[in-house]
Amino acid sequence: MTAAGLTAKRGGPLKGRVRAPGDKSISHRALIFGALATGTTQIQGLLEGDDVLRTAAAMRAFGAQVDSLGAGRWRVTGKGGFSEPEDVIDCGNAGTGVRLVMGAAAGFDLSATFTGDASLRKRPMNRVMTPLREMGASFAGRSGGRLPLTLKGGSLGRLVYRLPEPSAQVKSAVLLAGLHAQGGAGVIEPEATRDHTERMLRAFGVEISVEDRGGERHIDLAGGQKLTAADVDVPGDPSSAAFPLVAALITPGSEVTVEGVLLNALRTGLFETLIEMGADLSVANRRQSGGEEVGDVTARGSTLRGVDVPPERAPSMIDEYPILAVAAAFARGPTHMRGIGEMRVKESDRIALMAAGLSACGVGVEEEPEGLIVVGGQGANHPIAGGAEVVTHGDHRIAMSHLVMGLAAQAPISVDEPGMIATSFPGFVEMMRGLGAEIDPT
Ligand code: S3P
Description:
By secondary structure, the protein is of the alpha/beta class. The protein has twelve helices and 24 strands. It has helices spanning 24-36, 50-61, 95-105, 126-135, 168-178, 196-203, 238-250, 269-276, 321-329, 350-360, 396-406, 428-434, and strands spanning 6-9, 15-19, 38-44, 65-70, 73-79, 89-90, 111-115, 138-142, 146-152, 156-162, 181-189, 208-213, 216-221, 232-233, 255-262, 280-289, 292-300, 308-309, 335-338, 365-368, 371-374, 389-390, 413-415, 438-441. It has a four-stranded mixed β-sheet, covered by helices on one side. A four-stranded mixed β-sheet has the order 2-15-17-16. A hairpin with a 2-residue loop joins strand 4 and strand 5. Helix 7 (238-250) packs parallel to helix 9. The longest helix has 13 residues, at 24-36. It is globular, with a radius of gyration of 21 Å. The termini are close together. 55% of the residues are buried. The model has no long low-confidence stretch (mean pLDDT 96). The structure holds shikimate-3-phosphate (S3P). Shikimate-3-phosphate binds next to helix 5. Shikimate-3-phosphate is lined by residues 25, 96, 167-169, 172, 194, 318-319, 342.
């Protein structure tokens, strides 16, 4: 890939079988839990994207031994705790990395300074600092709770925290801090968010209770529990699989299979929505792998119709709305995405950037404070003009979404800052080209 930009243009149908890169959420957690544990954790299928490599470096800085053994295989030897890092921890573009590591570090007697790239330095950290402060950690940072900031960890007390916004990152930070808090910690989730932390803590020998009370999830763990090293087999990332799958849906005559995709029900909101839109999407070979359900997902060129996406589905597909908006552009009738205000505080303001990008490509869109309406065409699979140069603000998912749109638009679509795609999907361009996509340096 070049720094100049990438351009996608319309070609023939996409065909083939591929493997999605390792799940980003599970990859961060595998490294962090391995570093907190005592003993040696072997990881297979780790996502070797920039975000996760930053977390690997952070774990070394906090005292774990972290070795790459080649092709997604990693070994983490933890000391059962964190020691004070000698230098600033730079988490790059990764909100998950910085927020989970802050939680994991908060219960240790250390001081650590965190920073990130220009995007991460704009994102809200108060959402983790507030509960961690209530537990006893202290922070000094920039105004508005922005990075860089310094955490002073130490002895923590119990907190039961009701999440003000549905965030698996905040839940995970509180639970990880709770492992080293007097009395542990609890989290109440009015809306369920991805549960990889709960599942993986169990795999590392931690007792954690999860109860449904009146439609809310109550999660609790006792303090002072030790993690024991465990092997982790990272499934394919459904958030990455979404790009080749949607590309196949909007490109007539295509048939693409992505193997080994994570099918955890708290992550599959996009697949559910696409099926409601009439997508020919099927799952074969459902199996258990490393405590999670996985399967091979096949998408074939489809005639899509617009749908109403309910707000309660947002946590299970929060990273997938940009690519859903592309599918919606090729559908008959409007698609209304509601309750997606969290999109505005991701790697970029994704509601604003998708609205701008779609509109530059000739798609009718309407931006709402917490929603997006993609008008779709008069007829099914109507032509989308394309022909735009899209500004991504360094957001990997905005870049990949517009490149996918370019594969089925009338005129080519270009994106800037293509290097950022490697934060979550190294090899995206090569994989898409292998399926027959025409994506080239601008
Ligand atoms: C993640 C949680 C989500 C998601 C992010 C990964 C995680 O963020 O957008 O890509 O691994 O816990 P929030 O917790 O902020 O919703």
